[in-house]
Amino acid sequence: MDFLEPMSLPVSKKREFDPLTDLKDLLQEDLKEIDRVIEQNLKSSVSLIPTLGRHLIYAGGKRLRPLLTIASYRLFNSKGNEAIGLAAAVEFIHTATLLHDDVIDKSKLRRGIPTANELWGNQASVLVGDFLFARSFQLMIQSNNSHVLRILAEASACISEGEVLQLSLCHQLDIKLEDSLKVIEAKTAMLFAAACEVGALMATHQTNATALRVYGQNLGMAFQIVDDILDYSANEVLLGKEIGTDFREGKITLPIVLTYLECSSEEKSFFKRTLVDHIQTPDDFSLALQILQKHNGLTKSYALAKTYGQKAIEALAGLASHPIKELLQSLIEQSLRRTS
Predict the structure, then answer these.
(1) Which of 114, 129, 163, 270 could form a disulfide with 99 if both were Cys (CB 3.0 to 4.6 A apart)?
(2) pTM (two decimals)
């Protein structure tokens, strides 16, 4: 199959168009190989490491980041396999950050199941997260590409900086909008950007890789903002997770930041009690939602998500027509539709 030879989706029963599922179907053989590499690199003589690692990696996540890596590669190269190890490295980086996040946030559930720190304790979770970071760098080195190594190393450092920034702001309600966006960029968007860029870079020249980086960066921003919105507006049955988790954990996310700017003194006192002092009653989440709706915090957040989504679509505009390009564009639209 040559660079621009059309790729066709596997024949399946008629269903509602779902770009994420279609992308996974199109790249299913690559995803199987990525899973093989992940499993191989989870091995350790210390049995707790693969046990704890598998608990989170195979807990039902979308595998969106490694999917973006291999999709960005296949957009320009239909035959090689140079991006397989990098996709696995990206998943290890993401999983390591989740393990550390859950410890910092004292989370008890992720994707509806007990977190690793809840089952094995904070120390084991942090150390296995460190192991996965180390494994990711071993996989990066195998690419034999210093530029790729630099991109993923910088993304890893940026994620850690984002964690520290978020921690430093966790007791502040009057967060500046730019600081809130910096946290989203560092914790989420940077790895999306790096995942797309390194995949494209292994297959083509820098111009195309830069376009994919811009796409991934803006997809990551839109994706995380929508996630923050969903915690206050999602249908629990459709989403498959409990709403209000961010509020109950005292997380000051973008909808809260945009709402707080318009709050009365009484409303500000309410958010201080519930989010900073962590004193909550069963009715507080409903009241928080009313305040967010009153000041259009969710609507303003969604407008920002749409702006980033449009930038992501524009980033792909100059690339040649390809089924993967169309699915990547549709993935933006699907991410934005999650709030409806």
Answers:
(1) 129
(2) 0.91
